[in-house]
Amino acid sequence: MSIDFIMARRSIRRYTDDPISRDDLRKILEAAMAAPSSRDRKPWHFVVVTGREILKRLADAHPHGKMLAEAAAAVAVCGDTNTSPDYWVQDCSASTENILIAVAALGLGAVWLGCHPRKDRVDAIREVLNIPEDVGILSLISIGNPAEQKDPRTQYDEERVHQQSW
Amino acid sequence: MSIDFIMARRSIRRYTDDPISRDDLRKILEAAMAAPSSRDRKPWHFVVVTGREILKRLADAHPHGKMLAEAAAAVAVCGDTNTSPDYWVQDCSASTENILIAVAALGLGAVWLGCHPRKDRVDAIREVLNIPEDVGILSLISIGNPAEQKDPRTQYDEERVHQQSW
């Protein structure tokens, strides 16, 4: 099997007005929860937003989140810090990446907006989405039907590959 | 496009004696470096190990790494903590997940062995692979030709999905 579907994931920040189907949103969440997690603890939670008013508030809550005001959906990828204090960040990052790859495979577009460990971003999103204090907010993903095209690409760099030892 | 390839990624810990081709190793690294990174800083480095003696030393260096002694290859996913102090963990986690998905798509098997933030694991691997002190070690990935089969699956759980707000 080709792995081109991994190279097809690009950061897409401009969208058409079209909505995302329930079926696609469900697939995206199935992909999210197909990620591995440390000790199989699955610390993740997902807040799915499709309401325009809340999307607009999220756009204001994140310094690079302007596109959320026009997005069809946002997913906040969160992690229960009690369930997995040492690994929730890594588990939720893997889950975020799964979402991004699924989105691209479905013909949609998305961008990963970093939240944790920036307290200002986390606090602002926590307030908009009513997320409990002991739940970390790893990322906010903006999703829509792409109004920009980007070619698949790797960023392969031989200098980052060390053979047998550093 | 179906997203089954994401569900096909499972933790594979038993391998045949067959090697992995150079071509497949290259594809795996291309997938690794196709991940997104915060501010496009690409803090990642990859140590690729195929030598049996070093694989055996890695097996001893990680408490859950026994399978490395029989693996065809290991990849240590590392991050330059100076380049991206706040986000190298997330960037390297996304890169690790890309490797795992690529491995599955290529018909190979792999498992993610967590390292950071466990100091004992990081110190032991750092010594075996001669990794500089200011480079974090996010994960060690054991890769081989699968000697066990696992069915694709999501771990979808409705209770982890919050609509519009927590």
Give the SSE layout.
Two copies of one chain form a homodimer.
Chain A: H1 4-7, H2 22-32, E1 44-49, H3 52-61, E2 73-80, H4 88-105, E3 109-114, H5 119-129, E4 135-144, E5 161-163
Structural overview:
The structure is a homodimer of 166-residue chains. Chain A has 166 residues and is an alpha+beta fold. Chain A has one domain (15-149): 3-Layer(aba) Sandwich (NADH Oxidase). Chain A is 33% helix and 20% strand. A 4-stranded antiparallel sheet of chain A has the order 1-2-4-3, sandwiched between helices. In chain A, helix 2 (22-32) packs antiparallel against helix 4 (88-105). The longest helix of chain A is centred in the middle third of the chain and has 18 residues, at 88-105. Strand 5 of chain A pairs parallel with strand 1 (44-49) of chain B.
Number of strands of chain A: 5
Termini gap of chain A: 31 Å
Radius of gyration of chain A: 16 Å
Q: Give me the side-by-side strand order of the main sheet of chain A.
A: 1-2-4-3
What is the class of chain A in the CATH system? Alpha Beta
Number of helical runs of chain A? 5
CATH superfamily of chain A, by name, is NADH Oxidase
**Beta-strand level of the residues of chain A, as a percent range?**
15-25%
Oligomerization status of the protein chains: homodimer
Contiguous uncertain segments of 5+ residues of chain A: none
Mean pLDDT of chain A: 98
H/E element order of chain A: HHEHEHEHEE
CATH topology label of chain A = NADH Oxidase
Any idea how many domains of chain A? 1
Query: What portion of residues of chain A is helical?
Result: 25-40%
